[in-house]
Amino acid sequence: xxxxxxLYHMSWQFSGMVWDHAFALRSTPRTNSVQQIFGLERHIExxxxxxxxxxxxxxxxxxxNYAEAHxxxxxxxxxxxxxxTSKRMPSPCHPMYRYPTKxxxxxxxxxxxxxxxxxxxxxAEEKARMLMQELYSQFVYQxxxxxxxxxxxxxxxxxCGVCQDYAHILISLxxxxxxxxxxxxxxxxxxxxxxxxxxxxDGEKWIGLDPTHNRPADDGYIKLSHGRDYQDCILxxxxxxxxxxxxxxxxxGVEEMT
Length: 258
Prior knowledge:
Strands 1, 2, 3, 4, 5, 9, 14 and 15 form an eight-stranded antiparallel sheet that branches. The longest helix has 15 residues, at 124-138. 17% of the residues lie in helices and 44% in strands. It has helices at residues 108-116, 124-138, 152-158, 163-176; strands at residues 2-25, 35-45, 50-54, 60-66, 70-83, 140-141, 160-161, 181-188, 190-192, 195-201, 206-210, 215-216, 221-227, 236-241, 246-256. It is of the alpha+beta class.
């Protein structure tokens, strides 16, 4: 068990005025069997009323609309998370996590990887861990080589990418082997940006695996959202009126409390 203080800060700076700004934010962690959230504080600037909803995947969704002209938008959430993965409870698996999406399709590079790295007999978790180990040893973390539209097969063929690509590839490999898997967006101990990892279903419960670091997603991780792939888990999404350029800044900080 770990007690973690977390801060998620996101801001948009616009080169001019925008208006009729509608936003949908999946940046607020929710309490579940693994993580308990306390002392949650949220701030949105410009100040505006917002509504908390739950999306179709069970993620906490903050939505709102700011009609007046403004040249910046900031969202910040902080609080304390008590995380204990040993308390993970049995949970059903929706069939959608068994099937490919555009970003996690069983493309030729994925099938070739599976043919080269045959999974041994064992549990779903044992097979997924073996695939994670092989992916970690053959794939290189390198920013700037992929985009949010890069598929698992494209990233695998290129041999490098970022956490999103590691997650998409492992999801594709697992689903191709009959192991249900889903994409997770969240935070982990340290400073920087958000992180992505995978949860696989072992027939009883969801188990977190971080292919970028080749390890279980343990008590140092805080989940923000999950879904079939990245597109279901976008943390900050919005539309507005105005002919402007924009710059986004994201800061994430998670530290263990004693």
